[in-house]
Amino acid sequence: MLSIVRGLKKKLAQTKSGFIGRINAAISLRGKVDDELMEQIEEILLKCDTGVEMTELIMDRLTRKIKADRIADAAEVQNAVSQIMQELLLNDYADSQNMWEEIDARPYVIVFVGVNGVGKTTSIGKVAHHLSRAGKKVMIIAGDTFRAAAIEQLAIWADRAGAVLIRSQQGSDPSAIIYDGITSSLAKDFDVVLIDTAGRQHTKDNLMQELSKIDRTIKKLIPAAPHQALLVVDATTGQNAISQATNFGKAMPLTGLILSKYDGTSRGGIIFNLKHKLDLPVKLIGVGEGLEDLEVFDVHDFIDAFFTTTNEETS
Ligand SMILES: Nc1nc2c(ncn2[C@@H]2O[C@H](COP(=O)(O)OP(=O)(O)O)[C@@H](O)[C@H]2O)c(=O)[nH]1
Ligand SMILES: [Mg+2]
Fold first, then answer.
1. Long-range contact set of residues 149-156: C-beta below 8 Å, sequence gap at least 24
2. Which position among 119, 165, 235, 276 has the lowest Cβ density within 10 Å, counted as fewest Cβ atoms?
3. Residues 92-146: pLDDT tens digits?
């Protein structure tokens, strides 16, 4: 457990210094507790994608806490902010489960959806790698049939992860290959089936309907599937993630989110907002481009990595 937190700390260093670091710097610089300080904190929260409602909630609690605890020392405001953010996150994730521990059916079908370039294919490679290493027999279905390059990219990931890839010709109907893949996974006793889909704009109705068709196709073969429909959202796109989730959720009932590129953003506040606003838990966080750069979202590990500073980091 400790090593997980240490690894996560390193990978989140940039996001953490950009977000929590910026709040702490503003507090130290101001050096006193006044309206100006409160405005600065609010502005940073908003700039870092915490969202209007979440920011209001944090500021409201902070104001009340400063009054109730008679906080006059700026250094204590740092602790108060971080404590409030942790409480809100813990509350939002009170009944969320570790994604790896949820795998309770065979085959366990996971569909990955999202707009272009968010990291769907990369996330599938990482998930396949993790599950293969955990001893699972993993199938990947190349449901992104729009571009030949997309199928090739997935083939490389499948190879690296030690998973079987089911693919079809470019331009063919994604539902057809998904049907074939799942049929074969049932016959050949696969543990997990990961389905890639083409990136699509959440505002295009016909493409959204195609997703509904994929959902129906899967259910024809396994009524309880997909066991997970994960929307991949790019952490650097900020609040747009909210409207993506709303629209994708209409086409296919979503079970959770993968927050990708959380390593590459200095505005990490989105993570405090997603579950609160959407009631969709972040299940996995992408923290890099490599096979191992994926973390299951555990709220306690995340808090340890995000809010505590160790000597290692300061040295
Ligand atoms: N830094 C970083 N880059 C990522 C992450 N996930 C994906 N990428 C990069 O984002 C780009 C698009 O990824 P891809 O999986 O092809 O997106 P897709 O279009 O949704 O399938 C690639 O260059 C990936 O290497 C991540 O967690 N961190
Ligand atoms: Mg892709």
1. 150/121, 150/196, 150/198, 153/121, 154/121, 154/124, 154/125, 154/196, 156/125
2. 276
3. 999 998 999 999 999 999 999 999 999 999 999 999 999 999 999 999 999 999 8
